[in-house]
Amino acid sequence: MTGMTAEVMTPKEVETAKEAAIAPKFVTKGVDVYYAEKQALTNVSLDIETNQVTSLIGPSGCGKSTYLRCLNRMNDTIDICRVMGDILLDGADIYSREMDVVHLRARVGMVFQKPNPFPKSIYENVCYGPKIHGIAKNKAELDDIVHTSLQKAGLWNEVKDRMHEPGTGLSGGQQQRLCIARAVAVQPDVILMDEPCSALDPIATAKIEELIDELRVNYTIVIVTHSMQQAARVSQRTGFFHLGELVEVGETEQIFTNPKDERTQGYITGRFG
Amino acid sequence: MNSHPTPSAGAIDAKEAGRRASEAIAASLKGRYAAEKRFRAYGIAAIVFAMLCLATLFVTIIGTGLPAFTQTMIRLEVTLYPQDIDPDGNRDPAVLSRANYRKLIQQSVLDLFPEVTSRRDKRALMALISPGATFDLRREVMDDPSIIGQRVSLLVHASDDADQLEKGHIDADLPESERRLNDKQIGWFERLKERGLVVTRFNTTLFTNGDSRSPELAGIRGALMGSLFTMLVTLALSFPLAVGAALYLEEFAPKNKWTQLIEVNINNLAAVPSIVFGLLGLAVFLNFFGMPRSAPLVGGLVLTLMTLPTIIIASRAALKSVPPSIREAALGVGASKVQTVFHHVLPLALPGMLTGTIIGMAQALGETAPLLMIGMIAFIVDIPGGPLDPATVMPVQIYLWSDLPERAFVERASAAIMVLLGFLVIMNALAVLLRKRFEKKW
Ligand SMILES: Nc1ncnc2c1ncn2[C@@H]1O[C@H](COP(=O)(O)OP(=O)(O)OP(=O)(O)O)[C@@H](O)[C@H]1O
Ligand SMILES: [Mg+2]
Fold first, then answer.
1. Are A167 and A122 in contact (CB under 8 A)?
2. Quick one: B245 and B108 in the same domain?
3. Which of B211, B418, B208 is nearest to B294 (CA)?
4. Are residues B429 and B310 in the same domain?
5. Is residue A17 part of a domain?
6. Which DSSP symbol is given to B383?
7. Domain boundary among B182, B214, B246
8. If residue A256 lies in a helix (H) or strand (E), which one and from where to where?
9. What is the per-residue burial (b if ≥16 Cβ within 10 Å, else e) of A2-27?
10. N-term to C-term CA, chain A
11. pTM score > 0.90 for this model?
12. pLDDT at A5
């Protein structure tokens, strides 16, 4: 594919990534999810490697979002949703009694499909997380966090003169990067992204993809995407979902060049989906 | 693939069908436009009718009520004979307050018309002056006893009949028995006018006095204060209760049979006739808890019951209109449920909640029936100083006055309606303003 893919996929980089990933960040075993009586996920077992980008692909309605939302227990907000199986973050069961959901969500940030900045100023959008978690001790520290987060999200230069203007006044792509900055500001271990580029134009998309690649150094990233190219460009590992099952997971290169399962083959070549 | 040199039979059919469809559309257009015109005409007719009704209402109310904003006064020269007021000369307030000021007023009026001698004529003459003159004079003397012995000039209220005469509401052409002032009285009043003793001024009494048996002394102050205290109690109770209930139901309560039952009941409560809340207030607050009758506190409690469903429903709608993506965003960065609601959802829903509250309060401000049940309809002269004092409210005052035979009272009822409408318009404008001001785009 493009030069960018080649860059991401250099064997050396894969090696370093592997070295860094001593243990997987998330280990999920036999995850079943039901919406009322309807089963949305069946026996999904998937490891999310540390400091890698894992992309989840699959046809619409196959349960990618559902799986992603299990990882930070966002499914708790849906009354009818039941999650079964083991989901371990650094070896700790996130659905156990000891796991505090607020703490979990501080460690596992999320970026949504539609940019959803708070209808407040850009500054307040970014500083909200650190503020409620008491991460910053004083105003100067808070300013610092906001600055670095916006810089990491590649938005600093565009908004540094309008920090106190509403975040909703930014363009779609800028809003999405603001949401990434907001997630980054809490200093999570993992960032979940559910189709973060689906509402964006190619240029904004390229920016965010670049960003994901940079963020990988410090964060573990799971991204749901409908774009095969995007998955190939940004991720090191790819999981393919179909009808609520995880059909295949492996190195992105292997999935795209040499899929083991017929269904994967069919999907990536565009025969269904 | 398909490379026929001539259009196929199918293509010709399609063309023909297209042409026919287009003709059919053209034929139907006329009817459609006519229907649109008709519908528009109905709409305009409905609006015109509504505006006409409204205009009639305003014209009658303002036409009747406007004269009540002016009051005819009569200037009297009163000699304060010390032997009548303070025979002992030690300025004892108890003695001063008991003195016969009526006699002094009467004397000063009679001085103007020396020819009036018979008791009957004297009484008829005095009927031009409001009984309030006596109290005015007493107040003057009590405030400054040093004027005793002097001759003071005093502006006193004309009686309601004299006031009506001055405003042209008494027709001198009618037979004497059919009007409230006889020929002599009209003649005396004309003489007062000739001497320049009749003054018309803005009716401040209307805004400073409580109710009175004499129309010229009756004011809306008491009812206004009663309404104010009642509304304060209502607002202080219903807003936090309703917002709390709405927040709980919308954000925290599990969606199950119980919450559904509660929801249905709240909606039903909003449709309960207000008099039922009055009966409830009578039974619970007055008879069971033994709270004072006629008190704004109880009125406020009853109106709280009445407005709660309105505000709860409006608040829930406001909460529902906050996009779920905002909640997800907050939860996503690790805000707790309570933080999500209070930092993000509530501020966005607040304008809608306030709008609902103002509309509920406006409803409560115009409410009469439930307050009748708890005795806020008594004749109360004193202006209430707090929510426990007996009081009446504006709509009840209007009801009381419009029921009285004197034209002056009916006028005052219309004036009170104008004041009440003014408040309602201000409140509704505030609601609209809030909605416009805080309307957020996301
Ligand atoms: N809130 C919900 N209530 C009931 N069923 C749901 C809910 N959310 C998802 N589902 C069902 O669960 C299944 C998986 O949905 P999910 O949103 O995970 O799919 P997806 O792979 O993210 O699809 P897409 O690519 O279109 O976003 C679908 O069949 C969907 O109908
Ligand atoms: Mg999805």
1. yes
2. no
3. B211
4. yes
5. no
6. P
7. B214
8. helix A252-257
9. eebeeebbeeeebeebeeebeebbbb
10. 21
11. no
12. 44
Biggest CA–CA distance in chain B, Å, is 133
**Measured from the CA of A36, which atom of ligand 1 is nearest?**
4
Among A225-234, B47-56, B169-178, the range of highest mean pLDDT: B47-56
> How many other C-beta atoms are found inside a 10 Å radius of the C-beta of residue B360?
27
Query: Is there a single domain that holds both residue B208 and residue B287?
Result: no
CB contact at 8 A, B111 and B117 = no
Count the domains in chain B.
3
Q: What is the rounded distance in angstroms from the CA atom of residue B125 to the CA atom of residue B320?
A: 69
Kindly report the CATH number assigned to the domain that includes residue B362.
1.10.3720.10
Amino acid at B345: V
Q: With respect to residue B13, please indicate whether it lies within any of the assigned structural domains.
A: no
Return phi, psi of residue B185, to 5°: -60, -40
Answer for the pair B325, A114: CB distance below 8 angstroms, yes or no. Answer: yes
Same domain, B262 and B200: no
Chain B residue with the nearest C-alpha to that of A72: B332
Whole domain around residue B192: which residue ranges? 70-214
Distance CA B293, CA B376 (A): 7
Rounded-to-integer distance, Cα B249 and Cα B270, Å = 16
Q: Residue B6 has what pLDDT?
A: 57
Residue B355 lies inside a defined structural domain of this protein = yes
Q: Verify that B108 and B150 share a domain, yes or no.
A: yes
In angstroms, the Cα distances linking B366 to B240, B274, B416 are 21, 11, 12
What is the Rg, in whole angstroms, of the alpha carbon atoms belonging to chain B?
34
Residues of A with CB under 8 A from a CB of B: 72, 74, 77, 79, 102-106, 109-112, 114, 116-119, 128-129, 132-133, 168, 179, 182-183, 185-186
Of chain B, the percentage scoring pLDDT greater than 90 comes to: 59
Assigned token pair, A260: 């083991």
By CB atoms closer than 10 A (0-12, 13-18, 19+), residue B63 is: exposed
The CATH number assigned to the domain holding A112 equals: 3.40.50.300
Residues B271 and B400 in one domain: yes
Q: Which residues of B touch A99 (CB under 8 A)?
A: none
How far is it, in rounded angstroms, from Cα A182 to Cα A135?
A: 13
Q: B334 touching A, CB under 8 A?
A: yes
Instruction: Name the residue among A233, A200, A230 with its Cα closest to residue A115.
Output: A200
pLDDT digits (tens, 9 = 90+) for B365-383: 999 999 999 988 888 889 9
Residues B229 and B206 in one domain: no
Extract the tokens encoding B354: 């306030």
Q: Which two tokens stand for residue B381?
A: 């002269």
Check CB contact under 8 Å for A118 and B326: yes
Q: Is residue A8 part of a domain?
A: no
A71-101 pLDDT, tens digit per residue, is 999 998 888 999 999 999 998 899 988 889 9
- Distance between B316 CA and the closest CA of chain A, angstroms: 18
Q: Token pair for residue A32?
A: 């079943």
Number of domains forming the structure of chain A:
1
Asked if the structure places residue A126 within a domain, the reply is yes
Same-domain check for residues B325 and B375: yes
* pLDDT value of residue A17: 54
- Distance (Å, rounded) from C-alpha A225 to C-alpha A113? 10
Tell whether A4 is covered by a domain. Answer: no
Would you say residue B85 lies in a domain? yes
Confidence of residue B7 (pLDDT cuts 50, 70, 90): low
Structural domain contains residue B158: yes
Q: Which residue has the tokens 């009548």?
A: B84
